[in-house]
Amino acid sequence: MWPEPFTVNGKHVDVVPLAYQHEKDLQEAAADGDLHKLWYTTIPAADEVNAEIGRRLSLQQSGSMLPFSIIDRTNGHAVGMTTYMNIDAANRRLEIGSTWYRKSVQRSPFNTECKLLLLQHAFESLDCIAVEFRTHFVNTQSRRAIERLGAKLDGVLRSHMMMANGTLRDTAVYSIIAPEWPTVKANLQWQLEKPR
Question: Do 8 and 14 touch, CB atoms closer than 8 A?
């Protein structure tokens, strides 16, 4: 299986393999801000977290996803989820996606550090050729966050998928390619270290 489960540790967050032991924390995280009500993304309601953990672990068994919990290092609680997904081992490509955080830690250093840790593992340990990010075209908060990472827009897949509310999603596809990684890494490290 590529990639194998792993843990990476930062100053603010630990990114660890998703497990049912994180369920209670993730239920509380999902309830913080009623994020499941956002129509343009897919975040589980608190009572759906168990099923979402099961879905992601099932996709891990099939080799198409490697799911993680994002742990706040200050208190040891899970504050969100992320994944390596759409894994293409033959071409050493993957997507970092299905990411969400509890409302109270959004706009903190958590997402920047989590992405730095996952990108570093992808490019430096897995020797990835490219890492993708995808989001709904109308999700401007997510698109700006992806762009702040240093990813470039590859294009928009129009009418790419059906959303739960019946609307069609135009998917903005971004990527970082291996030759860009040193610059992206330096920028992400600077983002974390600069005075706030």
Answer: yes
CATH architecture of the domain 8-193 equals 3-Layer(aba) Sandwich (3.40)
The total of other beta-carbon atoms located within 10 Å of residue 144's CB is 9
Domain layout of the chain by residue ranges: 8-193
Count CB-CB contacts under 10 A for residue 27.
18
Three-state secondary-structure class, residue 25: helix
Which structure tokens are listed for 85?
């997904």
The string of DSSP letters for 101-170 reads E-GGGTTSTHHHHHHHHHHHIIIIIS--SEEEEEEETT-HHHHHHHHHHT-EEEEEEEEEEE-TTSPEEE
**pLDDT tens, position by position, for the chain (196 residues)?**
899 999 999 999 999 999 999 999 999 999 987 777 765 677 888 999 999 999 999 999 999 999 999 999 999 999 999 999 999 999 999 999 999 999 888 888 999 999 999 999 999 999 999 999 999 999 998 899 899 999 999 999 999 999 888 899 999 999 999 999 999 999 999 999 987 6
> Within 10 Å of residue 156's Cβ, how many Cβ atoms?
11
Residues 26 and 96: their CA atoms lie apart, in Å, by 19
- Residue 58, CA distances (Å) to 7, 42, 122, 145, 186 in order: 19, 18, 22, 28, 35
